[in-house]
C-alpha cells in the first residue's frame, strides 16, 4: 500500500496548477460577463494555451486519441479542474458530457463515426450532448427509457422527448447521442440502442433550457428539453449494434462518475479555501471569524471530510484500473452516494461564512453549491444508489440464510 | 391553555383559502411568464380582488390604517400567503419590505410623512425599500452601520453604500428608508437615524440587483446594491428624531420575523403537499414513492417538524400580543433560528422526491428553497441568534455563580 | 388561542417545584447508594411526604380515585417529575408502568379486581408490571403477540415468554398484567385478551433483568424476561372480556406516551441546566465553556428544541382532552417520534460538555441518556411511527387520485 | 499509489481471521459470564493459543521486542481484533493501555525498568495502567496536569488525584505510569514528568471504578479513580528525565489513536454484520427488514462511511511510517475526529435494527456503542481536535494576510 502519486501525475499536477494560477483564475471574471448560451470569449484562448502546454484530452485513457492516463493518474487532475468548473474542464477539452461521449465513440464508434464526430470533438471544434433522461419516467432505471428508434429502410426514425440533455443549448453543440428503444419485445436489457443525431436534423426541436436553482448553467451548455419528432438519420448512425444501448450506457457511467466526483472534490477545496480566506479577513463581535469556534468546526469538518472522500475516489479509480469497472461497481456507487452530499454540506458552510454575499453572484459559492446539489440527482438520485449498494451488501447474508 | 384559533381568525382563514384556490394558484403560471423587474401583469387584478374581499392590509395591527388584527390572529393568515410567496403577499398588500415600512411609518412617521408615503403604500399604489445592510460590515450588529446622514442647513446629506435593499429594483418602488449614522460620537445605540429618501433623488444610484442563487427575485422587487453619493433630502424627511434609528430598527424586527416565519411555514406546507402529490403519482422500482420507506420518513418528519414550528411561532405571536416585543425577545430569536433551516430541510426533501424537475422552473420548489436558504441570513445569520439566545439562557447561572 | 397554564396547574407546579427542591434533589445521592432491585430506602419517606402535600396520584383523571386533572393539567407536572426520573415519579405514585396499569384497572377492571389490585396500587403499597413485548416477534404490532391464554374450566392457563416487562424485578411487584391470545381464530384485533397474574403464581419464572446500556434500571423495577409455563389463574382474573386485549392496549398507550414525553422534556431541562452550570464553571483554552461558540450553539439549540417539543406535547394533551385519544392519534405519534430522539441529542451534548464525568456515575446524564435512547424503542421504534404517520398524511392524496 | 495490502499483512490477516473464527467468537459467551474485575477464565487459554500461532505483540514495531510490523501493516490487524474488543486485543497481548505503556517503556525505559516491567508485560504476565487524566482540570491540555512529583533524597513523592486510569481495576495490574509536575516553574512543556509507581505502593488508593454508561468495563480492567497520598518510589523509577513527560505523552498518543481508530473500524464492521444478519432474519409489516428502504439506507451509509474511515486511517498509518508522527499530526487528529462519532452512528443504527435486544446484554451492540461514545472523549473531546485542526488549516491564510 502506497499513498504517493506517481511521478507523471505529480508533474502534471504541477503544470496544471500553474495553468490554473496563470490563466484560469484570472479569466474567471471575464467568463462571468459573457452572455447566456455562448462559451466565454476567452475560452478559445484558454483552449489554445492548454493545448500548447500539453494539458489536452487528459481524460482519455486510449493513448491513440488521448493522454493515455489511467483513472488513478487522471483523477487528481480532474480534481484541480473542479476548482473552476465553469472554465477549466472545457479549456482542457475535458468537460462533460463531451468526455463521456468521446470515450463512447473511441470505444464503440465505427471508423466513419469516429472520423466524422470524434475527431472534431478531440480537436475541441464542436461540442456534443448525451440524450438519455426523459421527463415521463424514472430514468435512473435505463430500462424505462421510452423514446423509440425504429428502422425504416436505410434509416432510423427517432421519436420521443428528452430533458436534462446537458450541453445541447450550446451553439457549438453539433451532435446528439440519443438512447432509445429499438426492440420493445427484446429482453429488458437488450431493448435499447444508441444513435448519433446531428443537432440540425429536421424534427429535432430544442424546446428550452432547464434551470438549476435559477441558473441556466450556460457555461456547461445548459440542460435542454428536446423533442424528437420523426427524426430520420442514416442507419449507419447507430452506435455498435441494435440492443447494445444498455451495455454502452453502463460502460459510460463508471468513468463519468469518477470525473464528476473528482471535480466535486476540487469544488469543495475551492469552497474551503474561500471559507478560510473569509475567516481570516472578516470580523464579527470583536474577533475574526477564524477565532470563532463554530467557524473552526466548519473548517475542521470540511478538511476531514474532503480527505476521506478523496481517498475513496482514488481507491475507486485504482480499482477500475486494476479490476475493471465492473469489479469497482460497489465503490463507484459509494463515491456517488458520498461525494455530492458531502460537498454540498461544505459549500453550504462556506456560503454561511460569507453572509449575504455567499448566495450572490459576487462569489462562485452559490453556483458551485447548485452544481453539487444537482449531482445528488445526476445518474440517479442518492436513494437509488443506496438501495442498490445495500442489496449488494446483504447478498452474502441472504445466500447464507438460504443454505 | 387553548389551542383553537378564535372565530375571526377562522373566518379569515376560510376567506383567504378560498381566494388562494380561486385566484392565486390559477395565476401562478402567468406570473412566472412576466419579465424580470416588473410585477406580474395579473397583479393589479389580484390586488383589486383581494381588496374587494376585505383581504387587504391584514398585517397592520393599527385599526385606523389596517385590519386591526393581533399578531396571533394575523400569523395563520400570513402562513397561508406563504404557500404562494411570489404572488399572495403582494396581492393582499402584505408583502415585505412594505409591511415593515408601513408599520414603521404608522408608528413613527410624522403626519406629513404618513400622508406623503404611508397613504399610497396602504393603497398599494407604490412600493418601498428598506436600506440597512452594508457590504463592508457585519450588519447583523446594527451599531456597525457606516452610512453617514449629515445635517446641512435645512437638509440632510446621505453618503454610503447599501446592498440587499429588497424591493428597490421594482419600478414601482418610490421611497427608500435609509439607516445611517447621524452622530458617530454619540453612545453606540444613539448614533443611528432613519431617513426617507425618494428613489429618484439625485445621487441615488441603483447599481445592480443581487442574485439569490441564480434568481433575481424579481417578484419581490429584487435586492439592490445602492450607492448614495451626496444625496440631499429635506430635514423633515428624518423619521422620529436623530439617534432613534436603532430603536426604530428594533421595533421593526420583531413583527418582521414573525411574518417571515409564518410565511416560511406556508412554504413548507406547500412543499409537503407537492411531495405527497408526487409520492402518490410517481412509481420507481415497481411501486409508488408513497410506499417507499425513505419517502415515508421524509413525509413524517416534515409533518412533525412543521407542527412544532407552527406552535412555537404562534406562541411567540401570543407573547408579543400579551407581554410585548421585548418580553418575547427570546422566542423571536428562537423562531428565527428554527424556522428557515427546518423549512429548508423539508423543501430539500420535496425537491429530492421530484428528481431533476425539482430543481428546475417546472415546480416552485427550487425557488422556495432559495428563499428559505436566504432567510438563514436575513436579519443576521443563525449563528448570531444562537449565540445571543445562549447568552440569555446562561445569564441566571452566571449571576448565581457571581454570588 | 391562549398559552397560559390555568390556575390549578400553576398552583400545583409551585407545590411540586418546592417538593423537588426540598425533598427530591437532596435525596438523589442517597438513592444512588442503594442496592440493585430494591427501591431506595428514602422512598417511603418521600411517598409519605408527597401524599401529605397533596401530590399523590396526580396522573389519574378519574376524580374518584385520583386527582381529577386533565391531560393538559397533568402534563407540566409530569414534566417536573422527569427532572429526577428515578425518584420523583414513584414518590408521587405516578411512575410507569403502574400509572398505565392503574388507569387500565380503573377503566376496565371489575369491582373485585379494583378492590384487590387497584386499591393497594393507589395506596402505593405494591407495584405492578405490564407484560406485553415478546422476544420472538415484532411486538410493535400487537397482533403478533403469541403468548396463549386458554380457558380450562374455571381457570385460564397462560403459556408464553415475555421480556421488557418493566417493573417486574422490583420485590414490591405483586401483580402482572399479561397480554396473550385467547382465540387465534378470531379476527386479528379480537384475538388478544389481558389477564391478571399474581407474580407468585406457580409457573411464573422471572428469568433475568434485561440490561439497558449496562444499567439494570433498578429504580424502575428493572425489565424482566419472564417465562409463563402452564400458569393457572382463576377465570375472573380476565380483564373486561375475551378478545378485548387489543382495544385495552390502545386505550392504555395514548396517556402513556404523553407521560413519557413530558417526563422526557423534564429530563431535557435537567440536562440543559447541568450543561449551563458546567459551562459557567469549567474553563478550557483560557475561557469558560460558556463563552465558546460551539457550546453556545448546543445551549441555544437545546432551548429552541425543548420549547417546540413542549408545545407539541401540550397541544396533544389538549387534543386528547377535547377530541379524545383517537382524534389525537396523529399528534400522539408525532410526539413519540420527536421527543425521545431530540432529548437524546440534548443529553448527548450535555454529556459532551462534561467530559469524562458525563458518561460516569458522577452525573445523572448518562443514565438519563440511556432512558431517552430506550424510549426510541418503547411502544414501537421511531421508524414504525413515522411509517404510520406518513400513511395518514398521504391518505387524502390517495383518495383524490382514486377519484 | 497502490491500495493493496502487502503479502505479510495479507498472511497475518488470514491467520488472525482464522483465530477469530476458531477461538475468539466461540469464547464470547463464556467471557460475558465471568465476574466484574477479573479477566475471563478463558483468557489464559486464548493467550497461549495466540502465542502458539505467532499472533503475539503484533503492535510493537520494535523487532527486538515485538513483531516488527509497520503501522500500515499492523493497522488492518488491529481492525480485526476490534471485532471482539473485549477479548481479542488482550488475547494477542495488544490491548490498551498496555500497548502504549509497552511502547513507552521500549522507547524511553532504562534497561532496569524494561527488565522489571516491560518483560512481564510482553509476556502477558501482568497488566498496567496509565494515569494521566485528572478530575479537576481539562486534561486534554496536558500542561494542566496538577499532580505533583517531588524529589526527596533518593525518592520521588507523588501527590494527586487521577481518574479514568484505564486498566487499574484489574487484579493483574501491577504497575502504574503516572504523569505529574516535577517543576511548576519550568516552561510550560517542561514541567511534567512520568514515573513508575507499583500499584501496591503505600499511599496508592484505588478509590473506585468509573462507570461508562452502566458498564464497569471490567474486561478492559475498568477505569479507576486513584488518590496518590505521599506515595514514595525510588528515584530510578522516573522515566527518561525530569521535564520529559510532555514529550513522552505526545510520542505515546499517535500510535494509540491509530490503534483505537482501527479497532473502532472493526467494531463498526461487526455492527454492520449484525445489522445485516438481523435484516435478513427479521420480518416486520410483512417483509424482511432487508427489503425496507430505511434499513437499506442505514446499511448503505454504514458501508460507505466505513470505507472512507478505513482509508483515512490507513493513510495516516502510512504517513506515520514515512514522515513520522509529527508529519502525520493533522491526519492523526482527523481520524480522531472522524472515527468515534461515525462508528457511534453506525452502531446506533445496528441497535435500532435490533429493537429492544439491541440495547441489552443479548448482543454486543450496546457495549460497543458505549465504547465508541467514550472515545469521543478519550485523548481530548472531538471539539478540541477540531479546533486544533482548524487552526492548522487557517495558518497559511493568516501568514498570507500578515504579509
From TrEMBL, chains A, B, C, D:
Designated name of the protein: Acyl-CoA dehydrogenase family protein
Source organism, top-level taxon: Bacteria
Acyl-CoA oxidase/dehydrogenase middle domain: residues covered: 129-231
Keywords annotated in UniProt: FAD, Flavoprotein, Oxidoreductase
Domain Acyl-CoA dehydrogenase/oxidase N-terminal, residue spans: 7-125
Any matching Pfam family: Acyl-CoA_dh_1
Oligomer and partners: Homodimer.
Sequence similarity: Belongs to the acyl-CoA dehydrogenase family.
Keyword hit for Flavoprotein: yes
Domain Acyl-CoA dehydrogenase/oxidase C-terminal positions: 243-392
Organism lineage: Bacteria, Bacillati, Actinomycetota, Actinomycetes, Kitasatosporales
Obligatory cofactor(s): FAD
Amino acid at each position: 500500500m502506497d499513498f504517493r502519486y506517481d511521478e507523471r501525475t505529480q508533474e502534471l499536477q504541477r503544470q496544471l496548477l500553474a495553468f490554473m494560477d496563470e490563466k484560469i483564475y484570472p479569466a474567471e471574471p471575464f467568463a462571468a460577463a459573457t452572455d447566456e448560451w455562448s462559451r466565454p470569449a476567452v475560452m478559445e484562448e484558454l483552449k489554445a494555451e492548454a493545448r500548447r502546454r500539453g494539458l489536452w484530452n487528459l481524460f482519455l485513457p486510449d493513448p491513440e486519441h488521448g493522454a493515455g492516463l489511467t483513472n488513478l493518474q487522471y483523477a487528481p487532475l480532474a480534481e484541480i479542474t473542479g476548482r473552476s468548473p465553469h472554465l477549466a474542464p472545457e479549456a482542457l477539452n475535458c468537460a462533460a458530457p463531451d468526455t463521456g461521449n468521446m470515450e463512447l465513440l473511441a470505444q464503440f464508434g465505427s471508423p466513419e463515426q469516429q472520423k466524422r464526430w470524434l475527431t472534431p470533438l478531440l480537436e475541441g471544434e464542436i461540442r456534443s450532448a448525451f440524450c438519455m433522461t426523459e421527463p415521463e419516467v424514472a430514468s435512473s432505471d435505463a430500462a424505462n427509457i421510452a423514446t423509440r428508434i425504429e428502422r425504416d429502410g436505410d434509416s432510423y426514425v427517432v421519436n420521443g422527448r428528452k430533458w436534462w440533455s446537458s450541453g445541447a443549448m450550446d451553439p457549438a453543440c453539433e451532435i446528439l447521442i440519443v438512447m432509445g428503444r429499438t426492440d420493445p419485445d427484446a429482453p429488458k436489457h437488450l431493448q435499447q440502442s444508441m444513435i448519433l443525431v446531428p443537432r440540425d436534423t429536421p424534427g429535432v426541436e430544442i424546446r428550452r433550457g432547464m434551470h438549476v436553482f435559477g441558473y441556466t448553467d450556460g457555461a456547461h451548455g445548459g440542460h435542454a428539453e428536446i423533442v424528437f419528432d420523426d427524426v430520420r438519420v442514416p442507419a449507419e448512425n447507430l452506435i455498435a449494434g441494435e440492443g447494445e444501448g444498455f451495455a454502452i450506457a453502463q460502460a459510460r457511467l463508471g468513468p463519468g462518475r469518477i470525473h464528476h466526483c473528482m471535480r466535486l472534490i476540487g469544488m469543495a477545496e475551492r469552497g474551503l479555501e474561500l471559507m478560510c480566506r473569509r475567516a481570516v479577513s472578516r470580523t464579527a463581535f470583536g474577533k475574526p471569524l477564524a477565532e470563532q469556534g463554530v467557524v473552526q468546526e466548519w473548517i475542521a469538518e470540511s478538511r476531514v471530510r474532503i480527505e476521506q472522500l478523496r481517498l475513496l475516489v482514488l481507491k475507486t479509480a485504482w480499482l477500475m484500473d486494476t479490476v475493471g469497472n465492473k469489479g469497482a461497481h460497489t465503490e463507484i456507487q459509494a463515491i456517488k452516494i458520498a461525494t455530492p452530499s458531502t460537498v454540498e454540506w461544505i459549500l453550504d458552510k462556506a456560503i454561511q461564512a460569507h453572509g449575504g454575499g455567499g448566495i450572490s453572484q459576487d462569489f462562485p459559492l452559490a453556483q458551485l453549491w447548485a452544481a453539487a446539489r444537482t449531482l445528488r440527482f445526476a445518474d440517479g438520485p442518492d436513494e437509488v444508489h443506496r438501495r442498490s449498494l445495500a442489496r449488494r451488501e446483504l447478498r452474502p447474508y441472504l445466500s447464507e440464510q438460504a443454505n
